[in-house]
Design goal:
Elements: H1 3-14, H2 24-33, E1 41-49, E2 59-65, E3 69-74, E4 80-85, E5 90-97, E6 101-108, E7 112-119, H3 123-148
Antiparallel strand pairs: 1-2, 1-7, 2-3, 3-4, 5-6, 6-7
Helix pairs in contact: 1-2
Amino acid sequence: MGKVYDQVCMFKAKYPGTITWWRLRKHAKVVEQHLNPDEEPIYTFAGQKNNDVLDVFSTSVICLTNKRILIGQDHILYGYTLNSITPDLFNDLQVFKGIIFGKVTIDTVKEIVVITNLDKKCLPEVETAISSFMMEEKKKYSIHNTHSE
């Protein structure tokens, strides 16, 4: 399969407490078909894209590339959903650690994306991957915008 699927499988092997039971290959395929030719997956993980810890049927694959964050979710009957978060739209990242699971909230200009039912041991790794990449990329955007004015 592709790099995205390989990375999400490594994540699941490292953090088996994350609830992502099925269709990871299909969700990863959604992300892989939307990768631009110059894009490379840097970090990939999976979780439930919802704000309800009891809803375990919203599995998504979240892929941090060298350009943006892609969130892919294949629907059971037909179609799929893809979210793309570019560094200029990224506002903030919030991490919540509960007794059993963790949650990551990505705040953007247009929406709030919540990924739940994550193994609480993976939270520092997910936070570091996303926030360090986005802060570096946001610096490039601010430099680019300063030069264009």
